[in-house]
Amino acid sequence: MTAKTKINGPSRAPDEGPRYQEECQFALEPSVSKLIELAVDAGWDREQVVYALLNLAAPHILDRTILGSEFLYQ
Question: How far apart are CA 32 and CA 54, in angstroms?
Fold first, then answer.
């Protein structure tokens, strides 16, 4: 399959802490922003769209330590 990758892959390992998370956010941001804009253009309220995305994403967090202060503030 020769489909072009739409999201950049990581250049760091997950155990590199906040830098890995920052890189992941940077890679995902354009796609997430576009998804929000598509939903708003379809008539959905922006705040409700963002809240829905948070609710959809929350169950996918398997490693709760990602949300811990020791990870976010290293």
Answer: 11
Residues 28 and 63: their CA atoms lie apart, in Å, by 19
How confident is the model at residue 42, as a pLDDT?
Answer: 98
Whole-angstrom Cα distance, residue 5 to residue 31?
Answer: 12
Distance CA 56, CA 47 (A): 14
CA 49 – CA 35 distance, rounded (Å)? 9
pTM tops 0.85, yes or no: no
Task: For 11-41, give one letter per residue: b (16+ CB within 10 A) or e.
Answer: eeeeeebeebeebbeeeeeeeeeeebeebee
